[in-house]
Amino acid sequence: LGTLGSTTGFGAAKPGGLFGSASTATASATQPQTTTLPTLQEVIQNSDNLVRSLTAPDLYGDGRDALVAKLNQLLAACGVGNGFFKNDQQPVTYNIDGPFHRFKAVGYNRRSEYEDSDGIVSIMMCVPFDQLSSSTQRQKLIDALNVILGNNTNVRARLEAIRPMPDNTTTEVLIYVNEKGKGRVSSKQLSAYFKQPAQAAQLKSQLCVSDVVPRYSMDAARLKIFLETPPTGFDAELWKQAVKDNPDPERLVPYPIRGFEQLRKRQDLQNAEGKLAERAIEELRRRVVEVRNDITKYSTQNSIHSIAVDSGEEQLESRLEALDAALDAPNQIKSRVSNLMAILRDKSDALKTASDGEAIVLKDEEVTQIRKYLSRCQQALESIVSVVRSNKSDVSVIVSSIE
């Protein structure tokens, strides 16, 4: 971090950028937190007081001290309360990290699939998942992160995943940052930047972020130390046996569980993961159905175009062509109707005058010829209607297949 020039890095031109000055960024990323460790004498004294509170309290000097010892043992087993053992001494505080706490077990957590170079950082946002479900809302989140990153066009935030938490009021967002020309920023660097006071205040006020955690798997050296060091309050043999019983050492690591609250939280997280898996499976099932429908549609179209025309379709085509020829042939229905329309249009006045005069008298022979002609027209029309009706369904099938 300290070797970056003034023209590179997250908001390098601005104070308090992701890299900022070399001294500030390096201090934020590498300076260890100062913690006060108890001295050996304090450890021995606390252990002695703990044992005395459970075995030999000296409060009354009679049989009531034995009752107090049993009560202290119960409190220590539950990991709650204070144990009094002497009038002039402060009571011993019992908690779930104590060696006598009984409600504890060892579970197994999946190791992270990310490396430090992947740059994945988890930010816990105190907002429901629904407020981050749409693409517009997620784009606003990315824009806000880019502003916090110094609004540098060479440094852009990206979303890796978004998942709801069991309480339905918190959402975990996995992000990473790309720096132009250099690739992804490491998880440690990005986490250290977000934990600087100015950036932490922006995350909290603008995005309701409650925690920032880098997501990367432990290296071999740290994993070895973790497996060889029993957690506080756990027996060394119990922890060693848990490490030995690991069903999948490549993907799982043992993890201490203390108290019913941690067990319930763990169960809620497992249920949430199960729901996410169900949601992903449902989405895959929906996509499979869509693909299956597309394949069926394409197969149907392919089979329609690849099948040869059968005799029934050839007969239908011949009948339709004959019908079209009969309609368009000279001196047939279409031509005669056109002639009649032309006569009505051109001689409408003469016909009107003739209709106002004397009535037209037709001979019996002429009436018979007209009746025969109209009968033939009626039969032809009925034949056309019959053909159209009989072939309507076939035409519909052909049209739908072509479309």
From TrEMBL:
Principal localisation: nucleus
Residues covered by the Nucleoporin Nup54 alpha-helical domain: 230-293
Coiled coil: 274-301
Cellular component aspect of the GO annotation: nuclear pore central transport channel
Annotated GO MF terms: structural constituent of nuclear pore
Compartment(s): Nucleus
Keyword terms of this UniProt record: Coiled coil, Nucleus, Transport
GO biological process terms on file: NLS-bearing protein import into nucleus; nuclear pore organization; protein localization to nuclear inner membrane
Cell membrane among keywords: no
Organism encoding this protein: Anisakis simplex (Herring worm)
Name of the featured protein: Nup54 domain-containing protein
